[in-house]
Amino acid sequence: MFRWFVKLMNDIKIRNKLLLAFLGVTLLPVLLVGGYLTFEMRTMAFDNALEQASTNVDRVRKRTEEVIGVSQDISYRLNNDTRLKRLAVRKYESVYEVVKAYQDYTDVREYLRLYTEISNIRLYTDNASLLNNWELINPSPAIKESEWYQRAQRYEGMVGWEYIEDERDHHKYLSLVRKIELEGSSKTGMLVINVNSSKLTAILNQESFDTMIVDDQNNIIASNRKEREGKTLADISFDTKLLGQGSGSYEAVVDGEPSQIVIDELNPQASRNALRVISVFSIDSIVKEPNRIIRLALSVITISVALAFLLIFSFSSLFSRRLLHLSKHINRVGTGDFDTALQIDGKDEIALLARQFNSMVRSIHDLMLEVQVSNEQNSLLQQKQNDIRFKMLASQINPHFLFNALESIRMEAHMKNQQEIARVVRLLGQMMRSSLEVGRSKVTLKQELDMVRCYLEIQQFRYEERLKYHFIVDPAVESLSMPPLIIQPLVENAVIHGLDNTLEGAVVTVEIRYEQDHAIFTITDNGAGITRDRLEQIRITLETQEEQEGARIGLRNVHDRLKLSYGEKYGLTIESPPNEGTRISFRIPMEVAK
């Protein structure tokens, strides 16, 4: 990945590199820092708002608890007030008695006068002799069948908090509802104490966030937004998933806006149900101010980066133009024009490089003139030396073969007829003519193989069944042109090593195949192989510049001629595992005979 990036950067122009460097060094850190600060600022604003909402909710809960605590205290007093209970169950003979009894019992009126936290106290009791004076009331069938009345009947002596309508002004109040036993009777009454709504509203109006007090039926009892009082949470598009949630912090949609909701439960002592204080704030409103600051900062940063980009673009263009001017002159020198002169003003590194470039061009021009003269002389000398060495190498074929062949002809003359001797003499003549024509630089593959066949036929005449040979030639290499006397010395070496296998005789294989614009030659025998030390010595001998006395002239001859003809990377490769025969291979470029 890193190498790919380096290669990519190397392919980009210097001006663009400078612009990318500016963007990477300046713009990228600004974006990263700006993004981080934006996130942190938004998070900080949100956390502060959440902490403030939690604190506000806790404060509202405590103050609300103080207000409704007054209703609880009065309910406990009235529950133990025997005078009130006797007043509620007594059978009155006349209206006068009822009025007189009401006048004598002033506790309810005193509570209302002393405690502003409550707005009304009434006791529902079934007593036909009583008059409804908004303190003692005979419940109507509708009252008895109402849900709040029925719920209170099921809980003996426990306080309940209901959002119910007062028959006197037909307004709904948060009311303490409690079932009490009347004195000396099996009858029961229903005590209702209205909490002063203005007190609750005053508590909520001090809060900055949207805050509500809600009962267990999701009725909004009080709110610092007047239009929400008397409604339910469902009426204000409150997320239905949060309608029954207890204390905690939640994210939800309220009135179509993403909001954060903080809920704190208010559980009055010995109450059968609880109230909830709910604070809601819009997330967008909280991050509005940080967003404004961020937009302002981004505007300033954008303008600054744009101005800096224009400056760096101007500097990089000036820099790249001078380098481009230098590049054009270098290209002219590359095409062979050494009369060019580069003129770049200034004293910076590019101007210094231009002056050094001019000096270098003059030096190269003078040096090339000298090298040209020297090369012409060396080329002529090298050509003559190669011609002499090539002919000397080609003449170093081992003469023992000719002596052995003539000896075989002599012996055969006594044992066979004239036709066999004539064939061997003809083959020997062909080989001698090929040897005399070795001065030619190249021969065809067919001519080279014909000479090898002549050699092997003569050797078969000598060794009879103890020598066998095979030719495997790829048709793709039949038109090959190559130096003469390359294959024959290697085949001769293979015959010698193959005959070391005295039991089976020699089997020599010559394989020539085409591979990647080269002809691959492989000569193998089935001899006893060469020991590792001897093979290493042969390889060292082939690579030694000076010929050593007693070295294998045939192999060294072929190895040197291949290198002279095709270059240093060409030559012989010898493989000879013990007892597995010897394998000699080489390759030459495909050159078609003309």
TrEMBL record:
GO terms for molecular function: ATP binding; phosphorelay sensor kinase activity. Gene3D superfamilies: 6.10.340.10, Histidine kinase-like ATPase, C-terminal domain, PAS domain. Residues 317-369 form the HAMP domain. It is an enzyme of class 2 (transferase). It comes from the Bacteria. SMART domains: HAMP, HATPase_c. Residues 486-592 form the Histidine kinase domain. The keyword Nucleotidyltransferase does not apply. It holds the Pfam family HATPase_c. Keywords: ATP-binding, Cell membrane, Kinase, Membrane, Nucleotide-binding, Phosphoprotein, Transferase, Transmembrane, Transmembrane helix, Two-component regulatory system. The keyword DNA repair does not apply. It catalyses: ATP + protein L-histidine = ADP + protein N-phospho-L-histidine. It is found in: Cell membrane. It is a multi-pass membrane protein. Its EC number is 2.7.13.3. The chain crosses the membrane at residues 296-319. GO terms for cellular component: plasma membrane. This is histidine kinase. It comes from Paenibacillus jilunlii. The lineage of its organism: Bacteria, Bacillati, Bacillota, Bacilli, Bacillales.
